[in-house]
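#help-structures
NK: newbie question, is this the right format to request a structure? protein is Molybdopterin-dependent oxidoreductase
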Amino acid sequence: MSNEAATAQAAQPAEAAPAPEAIPHGIGASLPHADARAKTEGTFPYAADLWAEGLLWAAVLRSPHPHARIVSIDTSHAREMPGVRAVLTHEDVPGTPLYGRGKADRPVFASEVVRHHGEPIAAVAADHPDTARMAAAAVIVEYEVLDPVTDPEQAFEAEPLHPDGNLIRHIPLRHGDPAAAGEIVVEGLYRIGRQDPAPIGAEAGLAVPRPDGGVELYLASTDPHTDRDTAAACYGLEPERVKVVVTGVPGATADREDQGFQLPLGLLALKTGCPVKLTATREESFLGHAHRHPTLLRYRHHADAEGRLVKVEAQILLDAGAYADTSSDALAAAVAFACGPYVVPNAFIEGWAVRTNNPPSGHVRGEGAMQVCAAYEAQMDKLARKLGLDPAELRLRNVMATGDVLPTGQTVTCPAPVAELLRAVRDFPLPPLPKDTPEEEWLLPGGPEGAGEPGAVRRGVGYGLGMVHMLGAEGADEVSTATVRVQDGVATVLCAAVETGQGFTTLARQIVQETLGVEEVHVAPVDTDQPPAGAGCRGRHTWVSGGAVERAAKMVRTQLLQPLAHKFGMSTELLQITDGKITSYDGVLSTTVAEALDGKELWATAQCRPHPTEPLDESGQGDAFVSISFCAIRAVVDVDVEIGSVRVVELAVAQDVGRVLNPAQLAARIEAGVTQGVGIALTENLRTPRGLVRHPDLTGYALPTALDAPDIRIVKLVEERDVVAPFGAKAVSAVPVVTSPAAIASAVRAATGRPVNRLPIRPQAAVVTGR
């Protein structure tokens, strides 16, 4: 039995035909997404659209308790229901029963203990989705309910929630002189809430059994080879007998697929011998996938009388939820960047990631770095206020530059134009004040007919400086492989880098167009028959996969030019390809790429692997990061200080991008990241009283809408190329997410004089009494 997802057709411009030179082409052009029209028209195939002959439907029974001992599981009633084809529990996992992205500590199905609300207990396959859901509900589980541990501070003293204990990782960073002290000292306690990635489409997938006893998984995976290997280990199969085919990904700002969703799907297909489809409800999506780590941060900053930092002391506690996932990576980023993009000669940071009975936390864009940015920028505001300095001036006195040293002991060798970025947003003209007229009421916090009064509105201006690392860290082997093939004047790129909305397929087309002068370029669909390219996060596909495509394209270019160079007795380096034409430096040779190809089939495969990194040692020291990206944001907010409502008026952004590869795409990524940060700052908080997810839906979880998005002004893009990166480009989407919540909180402080030490900002935190 075979099943294939439909492929999206490349969108063609609907406008009048422009002059040839106006058509976007190659690096630096705003080439549109190939799938833009299909997605706009609703014809793009996502995982939820898949179908196969003889399809069965799956449903998963999840725990209603955050912590409980499983006394018994009775599946007999579910198995006897008409139309039910299989009911699986932990006893039906033939291979490794544990999995996890960072550490394999999470069971496919809970067996003895339930550790979080929504943990899978059983899975059902039936001939109708309603039957599957009813059968799952018919599985009888007897629980002995236990008291949940939901406060991460209590996890240190609580009974172990997991065989591996409650402590996942502890990083004690030691840098400089512990006896150092400053004349000015400020302290703060900060809390960051639990953000859900809230993907556009909930998880969905299709599993199809193969004649060789293996299985094919059709998923919106962002890391197909890791998902394949995890599934194969769970199923007790060799990796080559499990194939993951990537379907359309409806956006990803985190690990897109919950592996706990994927694994039962394949098990049911293998058990029944039929294709099985599972489409999660929004509630299941909230319960299953990883969230941003809720974080508790304690800070003490020391500065001299001029405002220059002397020492930073901090304690950072990440709530990992029930399982480790990528919490170790998030903690490393939080500890390493705990002082921000500032020169700090002495730093002493304690970082912990602990297990609780809260929902699992994991990779969400800017993990670790976002939480500490909110805290250290609040500390800088406190210092400025205590010293009577302008907040921007205080920051300028402390910003780092290329050649400075991180608290981890690593020298910043990449471009670090932090001062330039800050000056750009500081000097950008402020937006005008809204007019006090009825037609301008929508500009007030709360919108038209809101409860706010113009006389209670105060405007505030604040700043945020953020930093993130790119690619994996602490010794992660980042490698990607790509093949470029040219035949009949058409180029094809094969690379297992998943298009998650970040624009990799567009970039791959531009690279090949630039290198080979071939106008028509196609990027093949992704599956695990191709060599691995790694996960689609931290800008790795722009850097590593884009680098692999560039190297392969250059190898094909050499194959194309060598016969011509040999014929004219010159080196291939003396030939150039521009606008589909091949010319020599002296003008003797001039031909077209099409003529040079003349029916030939040329191809090459190449890899890209950045320079190695190393784990942080027992003192938090080490060259742990490949490169770092920086951002400065100035926020302007209007706050109704009587009711605490906040309207973000404008966010001015300056960012170091290395090199602009696609201007329109880059601007869209920055704007999307900034808007995601607005949600973190003002509305998004997945509430989990006593470990229970409250309102796991998009009515109870307040995502920012288009009406909540402020004016976003990209005032400066610093193109100082990172010499170790392909094309010199840096990742752009994570650092605005990291920086904008801190800038918004800073602006609310400026408007209200309140400390604002919690994100999202509660209305009561912005209320000013006794005005």
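mod (FA): yep, format's fine, and the tokens are attached above. The two ends are 73 Å apart (CA to CA).
NK: thank you!
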